[in-house]
Amino acid sequence: MEMDLKNFFRLLLEKKINEAEKELSRVGGEGGSEWERGFVKALEGLLLAQKNPNDKYLFFNKNALTKQDLRKLKMKFLKHSKDELHAEYDRGYFSCMVEYVRTLEKAAP
After folding, report:
1. Whole-model pTM?
2. 2-34 pLDDT per residue, tens
3. Region of residue 15 (left: phi > 0; alpha: psi -120 to 50; beta: else)
4. Residue 8, CB half-sphere, CA atoms under 13 Å: how many?
5. 73/78 Cα distance (integer angstroms)
């Protein structure tokens, strides 16, 4: 069964951690390509950072980011996600971060 990525990000933004964990559990085990493992590791990291009440572990929690800040951050992550000098794992990780920042952009006032 596949997870609903948009729903996962929405749950993170709403701080519905238990529901987000259930959504993430649909991804499955250690299988998949290096790119997929990097993508999933980023999802796990976002979830763990939200679970921790100390906001110092998640950049997005510490800083009030404007739409312009988010756009710049998205472009930086997008560049890394396409850079062939990065390993597949890293490109998967940064691809996840691009998707998360897109969700933040849509949710920003």
Report:
1. 0.87
2. 678 999 999 998 989 999 999 998 876 666 899
3. left
4. 21
5. 8
Contact, 38 vs 45, CB < 8 A? no
For residues 99 and 95, what is the distance between their CA atoms, to the nearest angstrom? 6
For residue 50, what are the domain limits? 5-107
Per-residue H/E/C for the chain: CCCCHHHHHHHHHCCCHHHHHHHHHCCCCCCCCHHHHHHHHHHHHHHHHHHCCCHHHCHHHHCCCCHHHHHHHHHHHHHHHHCCCCCHHHHHHHHHHHHHHHHHHHHCC
**Which of 99, 107, 109 shows the shortest CA–CA distance to 6?**
99
- Please count the structural domains in the chain: 1
